[in-house]
Every structure is written in C-alpha cells, then in structure tokens.
Amino acid sequence: MANVIPEINAQYKKTAVVDVRSGDDVKVHQKIREGNKERVQIFQGLVIRTDRKGSHTSRITVRRIASGVGVEKSFLLHSPLVVKVEVTKRSKVRRNYLSYMRQRTGKSARLTGIEFDRDAVNAVQDEALAAEEEAKLKEQKAAEAAAKAKEKAKEEAELEAKAAAVEARHKQTEATDEKAS
Question: Which residues span the domain enclosing 133?
Fold first, then answer.
C-alpha cells in the first residue's frame, strides 16, 4: 500500500518543469475556460515563494502590481491548467519567502539581477503535453475541414439542382417553341 501512493502521485507529475526560484521574474501561461471557449492568459510577476519543490504539489506564489494594487496568485506547477512557466529575469536573493517585498514600492522594490542562460532554463518542454495540444489542433482542423467539405457538397448539390431545373425549363420552352412553329 505504501508503494501505491508515490505511483499515483507520479502519474500526475509533469515530466519536465522549469526550475523556478524565489526572486525570479516569470511569465505564467495559464488556461482559462470561459463558457465553452478556452484561452491562455499570461500572469507576469515576481516569485515571492516556492513550496514543496520536488513534490507533485509544488507551488509558486507570484506577485505583481496591477493598477497600483499588489496582486498575488499561487500556481501549482504540475497542474494541467498551467501551460508554461517562463523565467524572464533571475535575481540575487537569500531567502525562500520574500514577504518583505509586499511593503516595498518603487526603487526599494528592485532586486539585483544576476546573469543566467535564459534559453537553457526555459527550454524545458513537456512532450506529452505538446503532443496532446498538437493532437487537439489536428482534431480541430480535421473537424473544420469536414464541416467545410460538407458545406461545399451542400452548395454543389444546390447548384446541380438549380442547373437541372434550368435545363428542364429550357427543354420545356424548346418543346413549346417547336409546337408553335
């Protein structure tokens, strides 16, 4: 029984997740469902906390200032709703939980940036998710193509029916013209 729980947890883990640390500026791409539409929304801000890094419940808390008001959002990194996490800036910090950033505004809220290889950090791709998204796109395109083909076939059938009706009227008028002459 003890071995079952880690196996179940491993099922829900993404195969590859970006190494996000406290003090990073990140863009989190999150799926938003509105009715039957689905879109990706980007939340950009400073990571002020990372929790349970190795677990399937690993979480980051991102803070940004929106219209002069501080907004914090927590994201589960292994959630299927989090499409992508992109690190834009890495800063030098000595804590895991940057709660003091809540009281800082303006120049005092700046953190010292450090050099890092942005491409190497953000190059992590989840092949299973990418394949799933690609399959969805193909399926959607196939459905659209089938709908277009059906519409085109319907239009062609209507045109053929009109052509047959015109030809029948033409033959009818020729027959009446021959009888008249």
Answer: 127-181
Number of domains in the chain: 2
Alpha helices in the chain (DSSP H): 4-11, 118-122, 127-180
Q: Is 33 helix (H, G, I), strand (E, B) or coil?
A: strand
Q: Which residues of the chain have pLDDT under 50?
A: none
State which amino acid sits at residue 78: H
- Verify that 27 and 108 share a domain, yes or no: yes
Q: Is 160 exposed, middle or buried (0-12, 13-18, 19+ CB in 10 A)?
A: exposed
pLDDT in tens, 21-41: 899 999 999 999 999 999 999
Please return the burial class of 174, using the count of CB atoms within 10 Å of its CB with bins 0-12, 13-18 and 19+: exposed
Q: What digits encode the pLDDT tens for the residues 59-85?
A: 999 999 888 888 999 999 888 899 889
